[in-house]
Amino acid sequence: MSGLKILVPVKRVLDYALKPRIKSNKIDLTGQKQSLNPFDEIAIEEAVRLRDRHTKKTSPAAIASITAISLGPAKAADSLRTALAMGADNAIHILTAEDVDLEPLSVAKVLAHIVKEEGSNVVLCGKQTISDDSAQTGPMLAGLLGWAQVTQIAAVKFVDGETAEVTREVDGGNETLKAKVPMVLTTDLRLNEPRYATLPNIMKAKKKPLKKTNLADLGLELAPRMRNVKVEEPPPRKGGVKVEDVDGMIAKLKELGAL
């Protein structure tokens, strides 16, 4: 194998520090700050770290390229530029209309098409986006491609150009697996701490290749299969109650039906 070609899907979402606003039965993004999805930021960081650890001179698992890809309107290019500034080699922007919100299966179909077109053999993506928290795109992509998949990874190390040793988070602890290339890996929050894009790297990112393609030109069947019934804020939480002692706490828990 000449090297690992890593594809990293990224998404521009409402900034994690902001509270979502609901309008017309959907999240209102008007005038709201948007940024790179935190899980995708971790995926980009890990791809760059893998390249640093597996150089062509010292490792049989050399990283041939890191390609960031995003589906979205023109402003989604901002997230791709961030990925390039963090260390991705090139980027692909699949342009959609401003009001298009693709379902996970549709995104997986597009990614499967690009994987075959680009010859990628590793997809490293966030386990979920904070915009819908579905955590479905990675597994669906692996299913469409017929590839190995490991989700919610907490550590990854390529033993050689064909095999990775991956630790993933499970209920009650971690488990370590070996997976064969080609594979889909989805990242969890504890995998790493992403670097800041420095000003020199932001300037360099402007010169890196960013290929643009219209979604309609891919010729894929992406008809929606789900209908959004209702979007609403959770009910406000009630204030807590102070108790004098343990007996008072137990009595209150019994009153609430918790005991």
Give keywords:
single chain; 259 residues; alpha/beta; Rossmann fold; 9-stranded mixed beta sheet; two-stranded antiparallel sheet; 6 helices; Probable electron transfer flavoprotein subunit beta; ETF_beta_N; electron transport; electron transfer activity
Topology:
Elements: E1 4-9, E2 12-14, E3 21-23, E4 26-28, E5 34-36, H1 38-53, E6 63-72, H2 77-86, E7 90-95, H3 104-118, E8 122-126, H4 137-145, E9 148-158, E10 163-170, E11 173-180, E12 183-187, H5 199-205, E13 210-214, H6 246-255
Parallel strand pairs: 1-6, 1-8, 6-7, 7-13, 8-12, 9-12
Antiparallel strand pairs: 2-5, 3-4, 9-10, 10-11
Helix pairs in contact: 2-5, 3-4
Explained architecture:
With 259 residues, the chain is of the alpha/beta class. The chain has a single domain (4-224), classed as HUPs (Rossmann fold), CATH 3.40.50. The protein is 26% helix and 29% strand. It is built from six helices and 13 strands. A hairpin with a 4-residue loop joins strand 9 (148-158) and strand 10. The longest helix is centred in the N-terminal third of the chain and has 16 residues, at 38-53. It starts with a strand and ends with a helix.
Strand content: 25-35%
Number of strands: 13
Assign the CATH architecture.
3-Layer(aba) Sandwich
Q: Which consecutive residue ranges, at least 5 long each, have pLDDT under 50?
A: none
Mean pLDDT: 90
Q: What about the largest sheet?
A: 9 strands, mixed
Q: What is the distance, rounded to the nearest whole angstrom, between the alpha carbons of the first and last residues? A: 60 Å
Order of helices and strands: EEEEEHEHEHEHEEEEHEH
Number of domains: 1
Count of discrete alpha- or pi-helical segments spanning 4 or more residues? 6
What share of the residues lie within helices? Answer: 25-40%
Strand order of the largest sheet: 11-10-9-12-8-1-6-7-13
